[in-house]
Specification:
Shape: globular
Strand content: 35-45%
Number of helices: 2
Radius of gyration: 15 Å
Order of helices and strands: HEEEEEHEE
Length: about 110
Amino acid sequence: MIFLGLILSVFYLSSCGAILIKPKGPIGDVNYRVTDRINGEKTVEIVAQEKNKFLHWLYLRCDYIFGCYMRCEGPVNSCMKVATLSKFDMKYIMTKKRRHSSQPRCYQYC
């Protein structure tokens, strides 16, 4: 029983151990900014005229054992462009509607 509790706590703690990667400098023609406004986490926010309804997590290839991701608000194509022009290799993308209790949807990036 103690062993099971130890294993569950290791999995729980390791799930919080991913590295957030953020791009540096202007990226092509995509207008974006890096903000700290959501739960104190750095977020790539695509600056657009329309109101944004979606939050994306772009999971990236990296050498860190628990993985790396880039959190992004805005159109998914703009988020992908920022990651591509920053030379990040994307594995997959999770998308969730902001302020909504539904589960995020997973899209395989090819």
